[in-house]
Amino acid sequence: MRRSAARWAVGAAVAALVATGCGGGDGGRATDGSGVLSASWTDPQNPLEPANTNEVQGGKVLDMIFRGLKKYDPRTAAAENVLADSIETTDQRTFRIRLKDGWTFGNGEKVTSASFIDAWNYAALVTNKQINASFFRYVEGYDKVHPESGKPAAQKLSGLTRQDDLNFTVELNQKFSTWPDTLGYAAFMPLPRVFFTDHAAWLRKPVGNGPYRVESYTKGQGMQLRAWDGYKGGDAAVNGGVDLKVYTDNNTAYTDLQAGNLDLVDDVPAAQLKNVRADLDGRYLNTPAGIIQTLAFPLYDKAWSGEDSEKLRQGISMAINRKQITRKIFQNTRIPARDWTSPVLGAEGGFDDTLCGRVCEYDPARARQLVKEGGGLPGGTMRITYNADSGSHRDWVDAVCNSINNALGKDDACVGDPVGTFADFRNQIVGRQMKNPFRAGWQMDYPLIQNFLQPLYYTGASSNDAHFSDPRFDRLIDRANAESDRAKAVDTFKEAERILPQQVPAIALWYQNGSAGWSQRLSGVALNPFSVPVFNQIKVG
Amino acid sequence: MGRYVIRRLLQMIPVFAGTTVLIFVMVYALGDPVQARCGDRACDPATAAQIRHDLYLDHPLWQQYLRYMGQIFRGDFGVAWNGRPVTELLASALPVTLRLTVLAILFEIVIGITLGVLTGLRRGRPADTATLLGTLLVISVPTFVTGYVLQYLLGVKWNLIAPSVSSEARFDELIVPALVLALTSLAYVTRLSRTSVVENIRADYVRTAVAKGLPRRRVITRHLLRNSLIPVVTFIGTDIGALMGGAIVTERIFNIHGVGYQLYQGILRLDSATVVGFVTILVIVFLLANLLVDLLYAVLDPRIRYA
Amino acid sequence: MPEPRNHPDEAVEPAGGTGAAMGLGQDEARSLERAPGPGRAPAVPADRPGADRPHSLWSDAWRDLRRNPVFVIAALVILFLVVISVWPRLIAPGNPLSCNLDNSQQGSAPGHPFGFDTQGCDVYTRVVHGARASVTVGVCATVGAALLGALLGGLAGYHGSWADAVLSRVSDIFFGIPIVLGGLVFLSVVTSTTVWPVVGFIVLLGWPQIGRIARGSVITAKQNDYVQAARALGAGNTRVLLRHIAPNAVAPVIVVATIALGTYISLEATLSYLGVGLKPPTVSWGIDISQASTQIRNAPHMLLWPAGALSVTVLAFIMLGDAVRDALDPKLR
After folding, report:
1. Which of residues 54-73 of C touch B (CB under 8 A)?
2. Spatial contact of C248 and C319, defined as CB atoms under 8 Å apart
3. Right CATH number for A288-513 from 3.30.360.10, 2.60.120.580, 3.40.50.2000, 3.10.105.10?
């Protein structure tokens, strides 16, 4: 009797499972050109304001609903005019911008020079707490609207001047020849009046001028975007829309894709990389993205910046077997670094796979010698500090340490040093409390070699976490920025970059690729250089 | 009885105060939450200072706490790290988690106690050994693995369920997640009820009941089980915390935006509003659950009275 | 009257009499309802001769245990675990930290019976060397949490009234502290690379659960007629607790503790995953299990061996716990 009771319980559970399966299935799907695809998403960290979004998930949406003066070609990363008719300068400081006529926002409002000027003034004003405010630091008057401390002395950037509805000028506070190429970044997008007049409503349902419009947005669950009929640009959506679905874990999204409940994931979990080709029958993409991972040294700590310490840092760099680690740990979704930029820049843009030279090659004997000449590891051991709460860094940190240990012939020369939260990790970096090399990385804002060098290694720059300072490097960067000829500017930037293998403020580890997997319904899937899917080109059905 | 319950409910006040202070101080000890909002690059100091000022973080801890408590008494639980009001997060996460927890507890009661009684009555027989092996498996294989394997087999291979739970999180979608969530606790409940049955089966009143010629089934349900349940009920009472607040792994695997997930996010982002809000609600749930457990003692064993 | 407390718990509505004798009488009546006539005898007589033969119950238990094969086997397994924890090189002379990434996730090879993990370390060597940290964490945390829990929970259950209120509400607050938060706050400040901070933290989080179980058992056990009788006969609190209540209340505590042992070993891995557990280069089963679990599709052998070792350990302690419980159960005599 009891046994039968147990059997009944099992039977009931199975029956319930079957019932769920039947109830959970999807309804019919459109197969014509207006099909809607579903894609994995994570809730953006900050409100979806263009100047308040600096991570991929929010950027994904902004890329769909906004178009700015420029846009980066999804394939070549070249900056092309979109709303800009022309951007001209003679002195590399004052830029005259002319807009194309006929562009409107989703609510019918015309995109004018005021749409840009108001948006940029909003972004730069310190009291609006936009985390990308510093993108406007080169514009004249930034120090007034965004003082280091205290109340702003002005509400508007004095460098922005409206001529008429289609013309405005921007005056910078220093020479910056490639400045127009930065204008494809989200922070420079125009905003409609409703953003300022009814901010809360705009946040609930953002209105932009891109190929998609937001149909509905439920925070924590997802966002429905539909192709916008009124879109004037050349890159209108070839599908009916995109349903972004929030996932707590990329592995779940991947499983949903396998089960046919999701069409697109743009973040294949590391543990599935070995199976992804077989699982998805080849519907998988692994392409370079503008991301480089490095190991930065706390150069403010005497232990890492004393005499001959550059030899120590070079030695550690040469003790890391990048090829083996990218193959075994990352299944070739990362490429051993050979400079401090990214392959997406292309040779013309300043990428140079010979720049790092021997310093980025695995050479245990030379590594041992250099570490010895550099005075040995401080205290005989080193740790690699990383944050444990995101991004599964542990595997590669352990592999890097093992590689260093094997090269130096000491089992405990290097161990990983996890920090519990990203917040704590960042606080330690910003507070200059690091005592060991730590994980660093850079995802480009715009595809310029300047973006890989200046923010990271210029004295006092915002992301110079190593606190590297080299007058020669700074001079070269300044010179490159003032250079009017593009090729010459790139060459000068590269000349500055050549200081990095000599000084090694950060060890270049590898370039990170973007990856995506998709369902049988989709075709034409591609990732742009920011590792974001080019949604408007995806065909459904 | 009534006065006892009232007294227990009144004890919530010091517990509420103690919990909020403790959690507030703990989150504060984690450090400054502002820097992490800017991602991998340093916030510019002026913006960071502005955010800190708006979050009241530029005041001493005790002022922050008093301000927060003042807000709570006005029904305002503050704003979470992602700009959503904590009350809104609670409203969306609590119902899902409650459904998940109720199902998990049902599994614990039905499967756990059934297995416990079965194995207790048949000590050393194959069924007992098999259950013991299952117990070992459940303890030593991480929830992540059982959850993922079940999700993969049922969701992808056999296509019986949807691998992820939809945002409505209906009861039927939560069956497999609840089972996964309940597994470790099942091991406890099974072993506890088995041991209790083994102990009580030789008790005088059971022998007497058998001797009186009562039907076996009646002896088991009315006499044996009832007296064996106190440790089991106690355990389930203590388990509610783990089920509600600690379902982080299960919730992640099945894409459930429940209390565990929100709480985990809040902690990682050093967001005191979210953490204090959720933990306070959880503690109130434990208080009620434990009160219920204590009242159940008296039902299960009439010799116990506060009762 | 040596025991003025008639309803040791928070009796607010005495269901009947007010004196000890009345309380006893009522319990009698209730018990009689269910178990009339003979059969209740063994408990009380077992108690009375106890006065002449000190420690009879505990020494009887020990005599029983030595003759119980289940106990002997479990004890041998545990002895083996202790030996390899102290001298892992006896059976695994290799170095658990010497790893070659070229062997990443490969299956068994000559000299490497269990294969290699993601980092290319020998799984066999790591399983043997991981015993020290894992067994230490598991056993010490369990013993700590069980002793603290049993003591505080037992006191709360036996004393009732304010002691129960304070201890129970304190444990409510403890239940409320999320492990992640507690771990980040208490363990991230610790720089020690030993297992002790982790053990201490697990005890801190673990005692309330065992305490609740102990409290429930004591509340039940103290209602028993022989306990009431012993008190009525003037036995002291300590004596009643140790001699009469503990043996009858200990079973659920043992059961929960033996299973908790396994979950504590896994909990250590959760803490390591959060970056606040055992610090590298410490080797432990928990760390290896958690590392292996994401690779379950690629290299199941990475999970099999450390999880197997954990299973054997838990099994040994469950068997030990069962044997001890049986030995302490007077009804089985």
Report:
1. none
2. no
3. 3.10.105.10
